[in-house]
Design a protein that fits this description.
4-stranded antiparallel β-sheet; 457 residues; two-stranded parallel ribbon; 9 helices; alpha+beta; Outer membrane efflux proteins (OEP)
Length: 457
């Protein structure tokens, strides 16, 4: 044997003796939610929107501070700036008016002029426009915060839905495996009874069991594929890489809610982020109306400035008195007529408010209806769980009795197959009702915007 073959076989036996150990993480529902909240990119977008709203609020608050700016300018003209007088000057005398011809030309300032100034302005009265703009910006921050909260609720809802769906798919896959094993055992038993000359088992019964086993094996392939897709959907919602492998811890059995419907509707009105955002939008419309109405009032402001001039000429306008100085004053601007633009803005803002109020009523009614539908769904699923659990217990006992009777050649093959199928259907109904309850509770928590267990605290 060559050295290369010896080396290959040594690697092969080494790998068999020391197999690679792959660590597969096992996640609970809360761990899946925590991972998603850490990795999901939509939260980064929501955080940026909150930061933008806070920056706009900071800009609006600047209206309460004076505005101070400095200005420096250097100008060179084509020539010195001059002042000329051409005419005559009449003066009274004892002999009558005397007209004296005047022809004067003097330099005001040199062609090179450097000027520096600092200016201050502060609005004293804005017709309530300033607090209206600040109020809009402040509520805009709250809307952005509710948007970030809604994003978190979206992520939690998606993770819960995919987690419960993955568990349901895993349960259905295991149920199909168990059913397949029972049908295999039934197929072997039927074959032995048929070959031993049973009076009740015929060749058609033997073929029927083989057909049932083959169909169940096909169903197992489908449930396995569904389970894989459900796990991939959960991994995507968590922000996991496509090739990450993990297992899920089975969640506890969900319980129906004890809170009445009115409390759930009230909780949705209090905590649902969409309702809160629309209510804030209605409040913003009040500020928008106030901002529009500010056009009816005058704008009063305070102004002050100080300046310094540099020029080669020591005289004219740039004399010792004018080289530096300051001024202070109060100004008012009142738009007496603007072609009904202000009244149009007010009407538009009031119409926008009526629209938002109507939308809020529709949202409140629609939210109450959705809460009621989920409440009915949860109540129905809770009853179905109880009934399907009883049906599954009866079906399992019925299947065991039929199997023992079949071994004693007391019942026909089709009766045993039927008992097997009924047990699988009953257990499947139990899993479906449990999954429906989990999805109903998840949807209700999303609508309310709050954990159900916190409502009673």
């Amino acid at each position: 044997m060559s050295r290369h073959l010896v080396f290959i076989f040594s690697l092969l036996f080494s790998s068999l003796a020391h197999p690679r150990i792959t660590n597969i993480e096992t996640y609970t529902l809360n761990e899946c939610i925590a991972i998603a909240l850490q990795k999901h990119q939509s939260l980064t977008i929501s955080d940026a929107q909150v930061s933008m709203a806070e920056a706009l609020y900071q800009q609006a608050m600047s209206a309460y501070w004076p505005s101070i700016n400095g200005n420096v300018s250097a100008v060179r003209s084509d020539q010195d700036r001059t002042f000329s007088i051409n005419g005559s000057l009449t003066t009274p005398t004892p002999f009558g008016p005397l007209s004296i011809p005047v022809n004067i030309k003097t330099t005001l300032y040199d062609r090179d002029l450097l000027r520096a100034s600092i200016n201050l302005s502060y609005p004293i009265f804005t017709g309530l426009k300033r607090p209206a703009i600040i109020g809009q910006a402040e509520k805009g921050v709250k809307i952005a915060e509710q948007g970030r909260r809604k994003t978190k609720l979206d992520i939690v809802r998606d993770v819960k839905k995919y987690y419960y769906s993955a568990q349901f798919a895993l349960q259905m896959e295991q149920l199909t495996k168990d059913t397949l094993e029972r049908f295999k055992s039934l197929e072997d038993l039927t074959e032995r009874l048929y070959k031993n000359g049973s009076l009740l088992v015929k060749k058609t019964d033997y073929l029927r069991t083989k057909t049932t086993t083959a169909l169940t094996r096909t169903l197992l392939n489908e449930t396995t594929y569904t389970r894989e897709l459900a796990h991939e959907a959960l991994g995507n919602a968590m922000g996991q890489a496509w090739n990450d492998q993990y297992k899920l811890v089975e969640s506890e059995m969900p319980t129906t809610i004890s809170t009445n419907l009115q409390e759930l509707v009230d909780a949705a009105n209090q905590f649902n982020p969409e309702i809160q955002q629309l209510r804030l939008a209605v409040q913003i419309s009040d500020d928008q109306i106030t901002e529009a109405q500010s056009g009816y009032y005058p704008m009063i402001g305070f102004q002050a400035s100080a300046h310094k001039l540099w020029n080669e000429l020591d005289g004219g306008l740039v004399n010792e008195d004018n080289r530096d100085g300051w001024d202070i004053g109060v100004g008012m601007e009142w738009n007496l007529f603007d072609g009904f633009a202000t009244s149009g803005k007010v009407k538009h803002a009031k119409a926008q408010q009526r629209k938002l109020k109507s939308q809020r009523i529709l949202l409140d009614e629609g939210m109450a209806l959705q809460v009621k539908l989920q409440f009915l769904r949860i109540r129905s699923s809770g009853k179905q769980i109880k009934d399907s659990k009883s049906a599954f217990d009866f079906a399992r006992e019925n299947r065991k009795l039929h199997t023992r009777a079949y071994q004693q050649d007391l019942v026909e093959t089709k009766d045993v197959i039927e008992a097997q199928l009924i047990e699988s259907l009953a257990q499947s109904a139990y899993f479906r009702s449990r999954h429906a309850l989990e999805i109903g509770l998840t949807s209700l928590e999303y609508l309310i915007g709050h954990n159900l267990e916190h409502l009673t605290q």
